[in-house]
Amino acid sequence: MDYIIKFTGEVSWEGQANGLPDKIHAFLVFKEYNREVFDAAIETQTGAFLRMGAMFVQKDQGQIIELNKMPQDRIMVPMRWIVSMGVEVVNMVGELSMPDEAGIERLSSGEEPVKQ
């Protein structure tokens, strides 16, 4: 079962005036629950946001969340446009698929996920 650490940034009026939604999200994905690992990951990622002076988020915030996107598919939102930041751990109901060498999404068992 997969777990997602979801960082939510509340965007200021100035950021919204520049085309951002009222909330932005960044994600970390883990295969199993481990409180110490999650705490360390949250501290590390929050520290990275602060050191960079920005929060890196998915470009299309209004679209379906694509957790497997590469870093170049993200945008940088300056911290001056983020009023506050919250963190939550979300327990996924099922396993997330990952692309194989041919780019086909597969579960850890090798099966393709059901597509709707």
Q: Can you describe this structure?
A:
- There is one protein chain.
- The chain has 116 residues and is α+β, with helices and mostly antiparallel strands.
- It is built from two helices and seven strands.
- It has helices spanning 13-17, 35-52; strands spanning 3-11, 23-30, 54-58, 74-78, 82-91, 98-99, 105-106.
- The chain has a three-stranded antiparallel beta sheet. The chain has a two-stranded antiparallel sheet with strand order 3-4.
- The longest helix has 18 residues, at 35-52.
- The mean pLDDT is 83.
Brief summary of the model shown:
The protein has 116 residues and is an alpha+beta fold.
Helix/sheet category: alpha+beta
* Oligomer kind: single chain
- Most strands sheet: 3 strands, antiparallel
How would you spell out the order of helices and strands?
A: EHEHEEEEE
For the residues shown, what is the average pLDDT? 83
How many strand elements?
7
Per DSSP, the total helix count is 2
N- to C-terminal distance? 21 Å
Low-confidence stretches: none
Radius of gyration (CA) equals 16 Å
Q: What percent of residues are in strands?
A: 35-45%
Strand line-up across the major sheet: 2-1-5
Q: State the shape.
A: globular
Secondary structure: helix percent: 10-25%
